Amino acid sequence: MKRTEQLQQAKTDKIWDVVIIGGGASGLGIAVDAATRGYSTLLLERVDFSKGTSSRSTKLVHGGVRYLAQGDVKLVREALRERGRLAKNAPHLFKSESFIIPGEKWWTAYYYTLGLKIYDALAGKLSIGRTKYLNRHQANEELAGVKPEKLNNAVCYYDGQFDDSRLAINLAQTAIENGATAVNYCGVIGLDKNTQGKVCGVKVKDMLDGEEFDVKAKCIINATGVFTNEINKMDNPTVGDTIVPSQGIHLVIDREFLPGNSALMVPKTSDGRVLFAVPWHDKLVVGTTDTLVQEAEYEPKPLEQEVDFILKTAEDYLIKAPTREDVRCVYVGLRPLAAPKDSNQSTKEVSRSHKVEISSSGLVDIIGGKWTTYRQMAEDTLDAAIKANLLPSKNCCTENLRIHGYASADWSTYLGFYGSDRQYIEILAKENPEYAEKIHPDYPFFVAEVIWAVREEMAQTLEDVLARRVRLLFLDARAAKEVAPKVAAIMAKELNKDDAWIADQVQRFQTLAEQYYFAS
To answer: What pTM was computed for the model?
Structure first.
């Protein structure tokens, strides 16, 4: 997957069947679906694949226990079905994780066990594990690190866990292998319309060299998530907002705070939300919050009250209470929620289901949704475009489509996340002893992964590598800041860049990394 080749294809003077704006979960899913249906497909991403919301999730592939409690059975059933499909189609990225809900009162576990049996039943043949009641002894054994007074009993259920931006890269590779063109660092700066006022193309800017070019298309899909309103205003400057951004933060801490193999799920926190503490890449991801914000941006900042809320809830449950000094990384994502009809509605009440809207000019919007249902969102989006006569009718064929990297899960090494690509990275490391060196003494990542990211995964910047190809920024922001000069020098050699490029990349990345931890 080479950017230069993809960019050349994007510039060809042809009329594409489908042009997708946005390279996050929605856009990449649509690219895979469109390409496998046989449409000529181009995906344009303004920054890097999954730069925004799609790399900042809670790392869960789940049906949504909370949605079941709200009575949204249709959404839960859909999500559980898609969870099962992802487990089958990308086993190298999907891990079945046990989640334990602590029972402080005698009746708590019985109550949740009943609800979660329904959750299991809704999954049907695609179930990944059966809910079970845990007595006091079992609960304390499974959740070492949680205060015993919180564990009079417990209930254990199963959900999926994954690496979000690694799935994004694999989807880009899958789309390209099926005939699509996908380019990062290509921003859409305008829409073209024909004499009937229908959208028929986009104006594109190469964000790396500044060159602008035009692309023609039969169907243009706005899959920009929290930036949906921005593209819609290019279509119609007077249109109202269709999405509202809601901010969620996560704190990453060491596994010693919850040393077992199970994740903790707190079903009702002080503000009525759900809180997770999930093992991920040998760390613990704790979150999340849900705060409406005014502006959509690529690097949203955590609010003091959000950090305090997570630390306070963690302190309520964990024997050893984490402090700000213990936080290895704080990352912030924005959810693209469908704008509520009632301005007084809270974010908890805004539906997490997705919807497809088509403007009078023919611009297709995919709004809302979540990683778990990305495949279904893609299918629904293209089916809606067909129904609106923007595309000839062709059937979806992604239900059983293997994602790039498909291989049996191997959790004995973090390299298992690469699936079938792992062998090539290991060959690189064997062929050149320099490539076998670690990039940081405390973490397993090694130089061959940086080389692979540049050669085969379209990484263009230091941030692409340290945030989204290897996940060091999200695991330990200080460590990522430390290795920036070393990794930039390795990349410069591969990309044929000079010392000025290295200095610029290091300065930009280190400034960014400082937003991901608390200064001591």
So the answer is: 0.96
